[in-house]
Design brief:
Strand content: 15-25%
Largest sheet: 7 strands, mixed
Number of domains: 3
CATH architecture of the largest domain: 3-Layer(aba) Sandwich
Number of helices: 19
Helix content: 25-40%
CATH topology of the largest domain: Alpha-D-Glucose-1,6-Bisphosphate, Chain A, domain 3
Shape: globular
Structural class: alpha/beta
Mean pLDDT: 94
């Protein structure tokens, strides 16, 4: 049975073909999906040629962690498929019941392959266990699901999405309502120990043929989406300038309808949308990788911005919880702002509007927000990477009013969506840009002002994608065993190793910082680099040039130290 296969968790280097074949046959006997059964049967028929493929599919189950599930769409325990989702849903619903959680389970999904099927199966598992299930009316952004958890008083929410992963992936994210998530975690992604509890409940699920399936759940109406849009527009001031021409792309994702509706309701001209990328398409045909940070991903957006004379260009990732901002750079060029730049701009904008409370970011983000809060007498906190931690920053010592992470995630209204939200972030960026335009100024002008006041905080990232995760473990072991004593010629005066809480190493000098960690969602090793360069005599550009050169040199030093 599937549960028995999962519980064994075979090692990835298994070479016993007969054993794997037997594992696969037991899986086939319990797989509820004829399509994936046919897929796995075809792999078995190709043995021994397909031995490595089969071993990888049975290398162990997708582990349910704080990001839920995420993996390639394929048959077998080490993939996203109907069998894995059925078991995950049964485990989740069982865990919710064991915790005494009441209320409905609300379920959203994006437009990726399998998303709707996985959402509907989750609803059937919930109703089969006697719990009401509410399905969002169509493929919608992740922030709408996070909003719905709070708005509908749900015990939990499930979002079927792989965010900005490749087309062949899908995923399964879980949010908790106030009853089980508490005040800080109401409508937020799960954190330990909930993830371990749900994982254990998933492993305890018996044969899938014995999981009761009920009604497909109740499909919510468009009034929920209208409510989200109405609340989203309340994030910005009603009397500000709205004279702004925006070019926009949802990158073949689900953000376009909601974002354009929000802009229209807020009184902005409706953004022009890249026509080739306007409709959801799970193949993401015009981009090599559906992440706005990837090279070439916003080329069509920039072309539209040029042809329409746009003041600003904005991109969401496919599930619209992230927001990329592209600004004019010279007469004809464009430049994507780094997440840290947008994070500082939004924070500064809220501070200028008089928004008081806790401002938070993560250990891998720029230290500029810390400096801004210190200078302006505002509460500040930083957390481990991920919005599940950001929205819990401060432990309730002060109300969170803003949080961001450098990977293009921004939460400008925690009481609206307690997660990153690419729609409200885009609205707030537009509000700021329109106000500056009315003064004959731009977002880059405001960045120069911040640099003049706090110094240039230049950030960059060294990111290495690997085929074998052992390469990442070896690099982390290397940096721990031979930690650099100098960076850029300055002594390393602080070294932090966050094990066992997190696999993170932090190095600091008087003017530089390096944070090294494996990615939590992709097979990547990441090193986050920052150099702080003071501005002398108001010469911001010279300071920027010095900082950029220093970061280039720092990248080379860190790469050598990691052996990559």
């Amino acid at each position: 049975m599937i549960a028995a296969v999962l519980s064994r968790g075979m090692a990835a280097d298994t070479t016993d073909i007969d054993d794997i074949r037997e594992q696969a046959r037991r899986w086939l006997a319990d797989d509820p999906d004829p399509v994936s059964r046919d897929e796995l049967t075809a792999v078995l028929d190709r043995l021994p040629t397909s031995a490595s493929d089969l071993a990888d599919r049975f290398a162990g189950p997708l582990t349910f962690g704080t990001a839920g599930l995420r993996g390639p769409l394929r048959a077998g325990p080490n993939g996203m498929n109907l069998a894995v989702v059925t078991q995950a849903a049964a485990g989740l619903v069982g865990w919710l019941a064991a915790q005494g959680g009441t209320g409905p389970l609300v379920i959203g999904y994006d437009a990726r392959h399998g998303s709707r099927q996985f959402a509907e199966r989750t609803a059937q598992v919930a109703t089969g266990a006697g719990r009401p299930a509410l399905l969002l009316p169509r493929p919608l952004p992740t922030p709408v699901l996070a909003y719905a958890v709070r708005q509908l008083g749900a015990v939990a929410g499930v979002m079927v999405t792989a965010s900005h992963n490749p087309p062949q992936d899908n995923g399964y994210k879980v949010y908790l309502g106030a009853e089980l998530g508490g005040e800080l975690g109401a409508g937020a992604q799960i954190v330990p120990p909930a993830d371990a509890g749900i994982e254990a409940a998933i492993r305890a699920v018996g044969p899938l043929t014995e999981v009761p399936l009920g009604r497909p759940g109740d499909v919510l109406g468009d009034d929920l989406v209208a409510s989200y849009v109405e609340r989203a527009t309340a994030v910005i001031a009603p009397d500000g300038s709205r004279d702004l021409t925006v070019a926009y792309t949802p990158l073949h994702g689900v953000g376009a309808a909601v974002l354009t509706a929000a802009f229209a309701r807020a009184g902005f001209p409706v953004p022009g949308v890249v026509p080739e990328q306007a409709e959801p398409d799970p193949e993401f045909p015009t981009v090599s990788f559906p992440n706005p940070e990837e090279p070439g991903a916003v080329d069509l957006l920039i072309a539209l911005a040029n042809s329409t004379g746009a003041d600003l260009a904005i991109a969401n990732d496919p599930d619209a919880d992230r927001c990329a901002v592209v600004v004019r750079d010279g007469d004809t060029g464009w430049r994507m702002l780094r997440g840290d730049e947008v994070g500082a701009l939004l924070a500064d904008h809220l501070m200028r509007r008089g928004v008081t409370g806790l401002y938070a970011t993560t250990i891998v983000s720029s230290s500029l927000l810390r400096a801004m809060c210190a200078a302006r007498g505002l509460a500040y906190d930083e957390t481990l990477t991920g919005f599940k931690w950001i929205v819990r920053a401060g432990g309730g010592s002060a109300p969170l009013v803003y949080g961001y992470e450098e990977a293009l995630g921004y939460c400008v209204a925690p009481d609206h969506v307690r997660d990153k939200d690419g729609i409200t972030a885009a609205l707030t960026v537009a509000e700021l840009a329109a106000g500056l335009k009315a003064q004959g100024r731009t977002l880059t002008d405001r960045l120069d002002e911040l640099a003049a006041e706090f110094g240039v905080h230049h950030t960059d990232q060294l990111s290495v994608r690997v085929d074998d995760l052992r390469e990442i473990a070896e690099a982390m072991a290397r940096i721990r065993a031979a930690t650099p004593t100098t960076l850029l010629g300055d002594p390393v005066d602080s070294t932090q190793d966050l094990l066992p809480e997190a696999d993170v190493v932090i190095l600091r000098t008087g003017a530089a910082r390096v944070v090294i960690r494996p990615s939590g969602t992709e097979p990547k090793l990441k090193a986050y680099l920052e150099v702080v360069e003071p501005v002398v005599d108001g010469d911001v550009q010279t300071a920027r040039s010095r900082a950029a050169s220093a970061v280039t040199a720092l990248r080379a030093e860190v790469s050598a130290a990691l052996g990559i």
